[in-house]
Amino acid sequence: MLINLGLKDHQIINYKEKDLIGNILKANKDQPFDIGIDLVGNYMAEVTAEVLKINGTYVDVTALVTKDAHEILFNKGALMMNISNYTYSMVKKYDYYQNSLKEIKN
Fold first, then answer.
1. Helix spans in 1-106 (H)
2. Closest Cα partner for 54 from 75, 39, 69?
3. pTM of the predicted model, to two decimals?
4. Tally of CB atoms within 10 A around 84
5. How far is residue 55's CA from residue 4's CA, in Å, rounded to a whole number?
6. Alpha carbon of 27 to those of 12, 18, 22, 57: distances in Å?
7. pLDDT reported for residue 49
8. Is residue 21 a contact partner of residue 45, using CB atoms and an 8 Å limit?
9. Are 40 and 15 in contact (CB under 8 A)?
10. I need a labelling partner for 38 at 20 to 30 A (CA). Which of 53, 58, 81, 91 fits?
11. Helix residue spans in 3-66 (DSSP H)
């Protein structure tokens, strides 16, 4: 499915392998990322923060950012976006939530 979306074989990383951060950067031609979207939190928040460029954008969908990840993001001057728009679905405003997800996708 990922290859059908346009990813190359070398861009698909097994998160259980050693040197996850190095492998992620290697898949991006050893360049940090402009945007990191954290869908897991905890340790992956730290990984996402590490591979982000200075003044990059960190999108948090979990509210599980660790203290270490927060420090890395602060030191990099990262813009942090907290995506909690799912709350609109609780009051049945699905269009707001849908538009937010479309913007993230774009």
1. 20-27, 43-50, 67-75, 87-90, 94-105
2. 75
3. 0.77
4. 11
5. 31
6. 8, 14, 9, 19
7. 98
8. no
9. no
10. 91
11. 20-27, 43-50
What are the backbone dihedrals phi and psi of residue 86, each rounded to the nearest 5 degrees, phi first?
A: -60, -20
- The helix, strand and coil proportions of the chain, stated in percent and rounded to the nearest 5, come to 40, 20, 40
User: Which amino acid, one-letter code, is at 34?
Assistant: D
Q: What does pLDDT average to in each consecutive run of 10 residues of the chain (106 residues)?
A: 88 91 95 95 96 97 94 98 76 78 79
Structure tokens at 60: 């948090």
Residue with tokens 């679905």: 89
Rounded to 5 degrees, φ, ψ at 95 are -65, -40
